[in-house]
Amino acid sequence: MSRPPPLAGIRVLDLTRLLPGPVATLHLADLGAEVIKIEDPQVGDYARTLGTGQGEDSAYFRMINRNKQGLRLDLKKPEGVAVFMRLAVTADVIVESFRPGVMDKLGIGYAAVAAVNPKIAYCSISGYGQDGPYRDRAGHDINYLGYAGVLDQIGSEGGDPAIPNFQIADLLGGALTAAMGILAAVLEAQRTGLGRYIDVAMADSVLAHTYFTMLRLNDAGHSAPRGSDLLNGGLPCYATYRCADDRHMAVGALEGKFWKACCTALERPEWIRRQWDAGLRSEMAVLFATQPRDDWAALFAAVDCCVTPILSPEEALENEQVAARRMVLHEDGLTQFAPPLKLSAYEFSVRQPAPKVGEHNAQILRAAGYTDDEIAGLAAAGTI
Questions:
Q1: Active-site residue identified among 92, 170, 204, 229
Q2: Fewer C-beta within 10 Å: the chain N or C terminus?
Q3: % helix / strand / coil in the chain, to the nearest 5?
Q4: pLDDT at residue 53 above 60?
Q5: What is the pLDDT of residue 65?
Q6: Tens digit of pLDDT for each residue in 218-233?
Q7: Which listed residue (40, 140, 199, 248) is catalytic?
Q8: How do the domains of the chain map onto residue ranges?
Q9: In which band, very low, low, confident or very high, does the pLDDT at 1 lie, cut at 50, 70 and 90?
Q10: CATH match for 226-242+248-309 among 3.40.50.960, 3.30.1540.10, 3.90.1150.10, 3.30.1060.10
Q11: Is 170 one of the catalytic residues?
Q12: In the annotation, is 248 catalytic?
């Protein structure tokens, strides 16, 4: 039997833009939290105009802002600050991603909110955190990965750093770290009545997950050259190989039993003893280049050894495992992803598409106790 969503009853005020914050609040919204997306009347969330888009808002914006309500609010006006503070009194979570100090200047920083709502979980997402010499610097995913030493380790041996088309710092360092901190603070607030201020620095979060780089640093005293470490292409048993049709296979046969099965399937039993020999990579590359990817995929489909085809994004969407897990949705005229969490007694649904700017102004303000005349006055003044 289905139960209410796990975060039902949790109210989130979301002042974030672009990717990290909106994805953090997307996860909360998809789990049932009431998320109010607050945008200023002048600019709003820049993500609305990124990409090709369809109609007024881009596909990018619509994918990561579903299941949220929209409130337009000018926080540079005293009346806007008053509206925000009234909403903050009944909120469980506030998430913002402005430069450090901006929220305090607006009069809605953590101290101001905690004074009227001690249980608030107040999360600030920034590139470098709320202190330190880089606190006021602008940045993007590529910059945080660069400062964390991650880009130095991505790419082929002897080649330039490769920029992944997956925003590691924004999503791992920003969105997921923020969601973790928020849920921890909400849980504590439910137990003690006291919330927390959560300072999320994307550069910190990426650095804190560079475990295999630190393994080499601790063991050898220095990092490995790009493309030559244990898990970034330095071993023949953990590398990618180009096939005859210029597609690729991923070999992840780290464990001895998998490597033995891989070599047996390749009809190269003499390679079993050479698992850690970096020189074997070139010989394996020659072999994989003799057949198309799908021929190799068919061979290894029946062999349990962690050797798989590298799919294009289009192929990934059609993959049978993805289909079985019901990870792809077609909602709001878009191809989207279902939440990665599969929870018992909870059936995910898109309750509403991404909001238009200020779409739920009246609904949200009425719930906060404003009369229709007061709402009309705020609109006439340009506050909402």
A1: 170
A2: N
A3: 40, 15, 45
A4: no
A5: 98
A6: 999 999 999 999 999 9
A7: 140
A8: 11-208+329-380, 226-242+248-309
A9: low
A10: 3.30.1540.10
A11: yes
A12: no
